[in-house]
Amino acid sequence: MTVVAKPYNTWAARRPVAGKQKRIRREKQTAAIQRWAAGKTETIEHTPKIK
After folding, report:
1. Residue 48 Cα distances to 25, 26, 28, 39, 51, angstroms
2. What pLDDT, in 10s, does the model give residues 1-51?
3. Biggest CA-to-CA distance, the chain
4. Sequence-ordered list of residues with C-beta below 8 angstroms from that of 42, at least 6 positions apart, any chain
5. pTM recorded for the entire structure
6. Element at 37 (helix H, strand E)
7. Do 10 and 35 meet the contact criterion of CB atoms below 8 Å apart?
């Protein structure tokens, strides 16, 4: 299935992507662990929780 550039009802707002905030938080946490494992930081930085 292909993605249509414009919806048929152009007055409709774009739907939010499900779980995007969770994905961003998970990626930041993974990056913090990788920096710690590489020895660039002494502690693992915690990312703030999603409201």
Report:
1. 8, 11, 10, 22, 9
2. 555 566 566 666 666 666 788 888 889 999 999 999 999 988 888 877 765
3. 53
4. 36
5. 0.56
6. helix 20-37
7. no
How far is CA 1 from each of CA 4, 44, rounded to the nearest angstrom? 9, 41
CA atoms within a 13 Å half-sphere pointing along the CA-CB vector of 2 = 3
Which tokens is 27 given?
């990626």
State how far Cα 17 lies from the chain centre: 10
Distance CA 51, CA 7 (A): 30
Report pLDDT for 5: 64
Q: What is the CB neighbour count within 10 angstroms for residue 36?
A: 14
